[in-house]
C-alpha cells in the first residue's frame, strides 16, 4: 500500500513539475513558463480590484518582453538617462537589502516623543510678509528689506492691533484675510529659519525681520501648544524619521571608509 501511495505521489509531483515548466509563450530568446506567468498574474490579482483576464495579461507580458528586447537591440542600455535610472534602482536595492529590516524594527516610545516635542513644539503665528519674487536681483531684495524695516518700525510704534496692520501692509494675500494667521505649525511644516526664530519667542511677542525664500516677515507669536494637545502622529513620524536618518548615517559613514573619496567643497561657494 505504501508503495502504491509513493508511486502516486511521484507521478503527481512529476506531473506538476511538467505543468509548471510548460511554456505559455516564446518571445525571441525569452521563454515564459506557466510558473512565471502564474507568479506574476497572482501578484497582480492581489494588487488590484479589477485584474485583467489571463489572456490580456499574457499579452502584456509578451509586449513587455518585446519592448525590453527591442530596447536592448537599439542599445538603450548605453543611454545616460537609462544608466542613471538603473543606478537609482541599484541604490534603492542596496538600501532595502542592507537597511530595510532595520528600519522596519524602529520603535518610537511616548517618552521619546515627549522629549523631541520639548525642543520642537507646535507654534501658532501671524505675520506680515514683505515679499520679493524668486530670482529677485540684489537691488530688489534690498528694496524689499528697506520697506520691511520701515513697516517694522511702524508696527513697533503703532497702537493698532497687529491684525489691522497685517491688512495694511502684508503681501500675503491668503493669510491677510485672517489677520496674518498661518495656523498651528511645527518644525516639519515651516521653513527652518522661520521656525528657529519663533521658537524662542514668548506668546504675544512681535519679532522682525525674519528672511525666508518668500521675503521678509514680521511675526507675532500667538500660541504655543502643549504636548497633550499636539499632533501625536506627526511627532511620532518626526522621531521615526530621525532614527531612520541615524541608521542611514551610520551605515554610510562605515561604508565610505572602504572607498577613496576626495572632496572640493570650496568649489561650492
TrEMBL record:
Ranges that cross the membrane: none
Domain PpiC: 120-223
EC number: 5.2.1.8
Signal peptide bounds: 1-17
Catalytically driven reaction(s): [protein]-peptidylproline (omega=180) = [protein]-peptidylproline (omega=0)
Database matches in Pfam families: Rotamase
Gene3D superfamilies: 1.10.8.1040, 3.10.50.40
Key words, A-Z: Isomerase, Rotamase, Signal
Record-linked InterPro entries: PPIase_dom_sf, PPIase_PpiC, PrsA_foldase, Trigger_fact/SurA_dom_sf
UniProt GO molecular function: peptidyl-prolyl cis-trans isomerase activity
PANTHER family: FOLDASE PROTEIN PRSA, PEPTIDYLPROLYL ISOMERASE
Protein name (record): peptidylprolyl isomerase
Organism this protein belongs to: Bdellovibrio svalbardensis
